Batch of 3 targets.
Target 1
Amino acid sequence: MKETIQFKPSLKLMDATMLVAGSMIGSGIFIVSADITRNVGSSGWLLVVWLITGFMTLTAALSYGELSSMFPKAGGQYVYLKEAYNPLVSFLYGWSFFTVIQTATIAAVGVAFAKFTAYLIPVFSEDLVFVDLGFLTISPAQMLAIGVIVILTYINSRGVNSGKAIQTTFTLTKLLSLFGLIVFGLFFLDSGIWEKNWQNSWTLAPLTIGGSLGSYTTLAAFGAIAAAMVGSIFSSDSWHNVTFIAGEIKNPAKNIGLSLALGTLIVTVLYMLTNMMYIGVLSLHDIAYADKDRVAVSAANFIFGTSGTIIIALMIMVSTFGCNNGLIMAGARVYYSMAKDGLFFKKAGTLNKNAVPGFGLWIQCLFACLWCLSGKYGDLLDMISFVVVLFYMLTIFGIFILRKKRPDADRPYKAFGYPVLPIVYILMGLAFCTLLIIFKPKFTWPGLIITLIGIPVYYLVGFLNKKGVK
């Protein structure tokens, strides 16, 4: 029987913008500035790393606007790669997306939610043992993460409006909370700390635990910037999730591009202000060596006293809960598009009675829960950063290919600053990936290998399709 259920365009510009911003802001902004500071060793370069990342994110988002206006349908980046290149390239993206990029990110954000819940309810501590199977130890934090992922998957399986309500509410709450933290931080700014942090503010060198500075060669300096950007790029990633649900956005040709621009701009400004606040209330050493890298907790304790930990714990719980809702909502639409092309489980290409890809949501949930149990998702997120930027570059280069292949195609929105800004992004991305290969090979090659494993899988799927295996 032919499927008659279709996606329902229910999301307005506000909802789409909240999905962009909400998917970007998870736990990273509260943590990763510690590692960045250890790599670059100065306040000026800390801000430069975030500024470069913000520029790259905004440039990519403005470039994706053209692609989203050309192909305003479910699948987003997967569809863009297929149209610009071929099904193999798009499958490799979809394969990486399902096996690691989206599912491991959902797991990591879920465990971050659980870790900060443990501040308020210690029974959920990651240091406790819930189940000991000998070969596998499971903590209450992991079980809570799984519970949250299952609950959000169920809510989103009930229809796009259910997920939309959570996304908009939680994103607005965390945007206002983060803005409030910035305002209080800047109000209580310590001029002595601020001035000291800006001494030698443009000296690029590693910051050791003893506070002494080493030195970098020219090449190593670029490597340090690239290594530092792994954290900021992770914190700014997932902005493109809105393109996956194009079929459920009203006037997608216009609103996807606008939501990408607005959402990434809002988050970039907030991230820059947050780091300026860190510099104003904490010494560089306290930023770099905050307990378990929880810079925001240290800052909140300075601003609010002993209640600061509770305030930040609540903020991160709200932030990660809303972030995971956006990731879960959007991810299943990629598997839907892959299934329609015969490159994923056939059932993932159908919509349930609530007009959402229910099977895709639940199989995504299963893999994300497995990553929660593995305990290896943190390493994999570092490993996949290289691949994420690689696919961004390929997608943006696809604009040049499609301009040549389809010069007369309808383009309601054209990439801002074309061809200069897209070329700048590609060059910056190439530099970032090359430096990671040189300076972080243990994080680069595994991610690339996971992606390349998709090549034989692609041909195996094609063979099975020819044989009629479903």
Target 2
Amino acid sequence: MKINRLMTLQLIAGLIASVGFTSCSNTNNGLTSSATGWKINDKKGGFQYNSNFSQQTPQGMVSIEGGTFTMGRIQDDIMADWNNNPKQQYVQSFYMDEAEATNLMYNEYLYWLKSVFPPSNEIYAEIYRSALPDSTVWRSSAGYNETLISSYLRHPAYANYPVVGVTWLQANDYAKWRTDRVNELTLERAGYLKKDAKILEAYGDAHFSTETYLTNPEAVYGGNSDIVRRGVKGKAKEGEKNIYATLEYGLFTAEFRLPTEAEWEYAAIGMVSDREYNNYKGRKIYPWEKSNKKSNKNRAGSSMTQFANFKQGRGDYGGIAGWSTDNADITNAVKSYPPNNFGLYDMAGNVAEWVADVYDPNIDNVSDDFNFFKGNVYYKNQIGSDGRTQIVTDQSVAFDTLSTGKLRVRNLPGQVAQVMYDNGAEKQQATEENETDFMAAAPKKEDKRATLFDSKSRVIKGGSWKDRAYWLDPATRRFYPEDQATDYIGFRLVMTKVGQKEAKRKTKN
């Protein structure tokens, strides 16, 4: 009996020792691979990995737990658009800006562009100009708004108002810039970049780009090794292997981007903590329904309920003096009205918002019900004749001419040059190369039907200060050309949540 107990204890001890050798501990130091038994994050070198990574909610954003919902029109389609029939969809968890991008935020972007790519330099002149919002969107042939043209974007009185006059293309450029600036600050704090180089030493193609750093870190900041440091946490000691930060370190944030239409609509409905069947099916029209009502007092002392900034009726943008209905006539400062159940402000009213999707009135016919998105276009890094990824320089910067006649820079100097990736076209080309002359494909008939939208028409969601209440329903959808702007369209950004869908909730015993 004693012998059996002794053998059992020895067997258990052996199993514990075996598990301890092949499993991973919770600390980076002493981490051991469960596949090879090799040490991970060894100070002497080897594979480096952040096993304790936990994605944090980005600055100015809120966490949106993903789930299933009914996307599309549930209420009567009084406009008879029939462009968004109800369909069950699922979206993954993501982060979303709690409010729309403001004039202050966009001016920070313009200041960076002007500092790094000064318009006085002929090479850079169009870079800054291509990012400027169109302030003339306020101009009217039968109204006087000239003061807004000169003051809305720049004047401190409008600093926290949503930026308008920005095209879909400009919003995407801003998103890419924001991604780079956040990652740049993170690497600086971790010791991989020289402190304050982003302010004091960035100029032209000598600045930080996330894609450039991940592809060829030695090319960041023009290859200045005094700024771009190597070594563990940027502090290489004698005998240590010099390395740059990689994705495995968990330092790089996911990219900022425009939300898909499904993400935006899901977030606008705000189905959190309110799981009633009708709301689950999409019947919650406005974000202030149920628990988000807020009462204020007008100057006369009477109760006044302010829900959102929208047009009450013809010639009525905010009530009469002393009896204001939404305390605004044009746009209003963000966060002026109650948030929805996700904590998002102005998902109805103030300004309509760009989303990533290409407009298509027949989206109910598509079969994809997971992270639905219409308009996938993929890009890949451009590879030179030497087999290396090409970095845009002052001499190779290129511009596209838009339908408005304005120029738009394809990639900023210092960024990775990219080309469109079309797998279908490549397969077709390979097929055609193997075909004989008599097997040439028959010519296609031209489609001469005229439509108001095309592949460059982007979806806009939500009502604005200029719209009637009908457009405040999250299910409504319209479109606008991607290279044009108005005085009622703004934007906010999202970021995909990586890893676990949602953090574990604390439960009471």
Target 3
Amino acid sequence: MSVDTVSMTGWGRTAPTTALRFRPRTYEEAAVAVRGRGPRGVVARGLGRAHGDAAQNAGGSVVDMTALDRIRSVDAVTGTVVCDAGVSLHHLMEVVLPLGWFLPVTPATRHVTVGGAIGSDVHGRNHLTAGSFARHVRALELLTAEGEVRTVLPGTDLFDATAGGLGLTGVILSATLVLRPVATSLMSVATERAAGLDEAMARLTATADGAPYAAARIDLLARGRATGRAVLTRGEHAPLDALPAHARRMPLAFRPLQLPAAPAFLPEGLLGRTSAALLNELRHRAAPAARTGELRKISAFFHSMDALPHWNRVYGRGGFVQYQFTVGDRHGETLYRIVRRLSVRRCPAVHAVLKRFGEGGTGWLSFPAPGWTLSFGLPAGLPGLARLLDGLDEEVAAADGRVCLAKDARLRPDVLAAMYPRLHAFRALRQELDPGGAFRSDLSRRLAL
């Protein structure tokens, strides 16, 4: 097991802190790392794609799980896989797609570990029909503060605290997942433009019973009648007979596009209002007014940003803050007000995505809840950003909504309880199982979790 001291950030590249990093290669070494933690505690870390500080632990220990990356078994008949928590979703796809299986839920990046997907209870474009990631977990092995391994099953309090619990109940070592069958590695995609937010929401609602995957890219810089204009994409897994003849020879091939990495250093202000507005304008005009039946690779449909390694660098050295919130259908006006506020403020957001959520999961700190969710990123150095987002927090909380903790870097603890009604139960279970506070992170200290 290697051990070193490193400075770490989340994917947003803000608020770096230094911790002792353990990189175990076996479950036994992971237990040694947990038992050998210092007074500042320990937290597990995967591929570092949490946007904020959930996988940082200033002055403490971090267990890097990426060397625990074995796929232990795949049942190609039932679509069940048992794998270590450090296995990435990318590697999982490499193995199961050729067998005719796909992840039941995938977020916007495949460079996430299975343990991170459970700890964040990640969601995808198909939340209306599939829920979030933990719904498809049949069992997991959890390393406790004492260095013991417990098998945790759905329907138990410990499972519900761990799903979306951001690594604060223990270190997930392995999981048993149920996959979904597919005939090809291509998606049949429909694209259409919406002139404003009303139209975008109406179309997303109208297509809720159609293609299982749906999202709208919102232009948060458009104003006036075009406020909230969007490009909607809906998709479903393409059947074999939809493929051209040459593609039917290898219908389950998985070959993601890889572009050169973004430069290590880019000038601040590269994504200012002018450049962001121009990029949004070009994207909107380039999108077809209406098109159906387009075939796209799975990687291009779900993980377009993964084609550019280290794309988080485009925000410059200061990094960026990702903000995602959800509100229920009866609080749609809150969504309108927030979009209008961002539009009037001319916030340079170039990747804002609107989706529908279905029934929430059982995780006590799991983010999805029925209604609407909007996600966007802003340069961390944007003047007045803290005041702006604090105001959005208050609006979201007043509408019985919540922000996504896995993407959070700056939420105040005083609004947390209003957003997550099971917070008290989570804290109580943590106190019962881990009275010494073995599992901690920068996020847990900031929010008093």
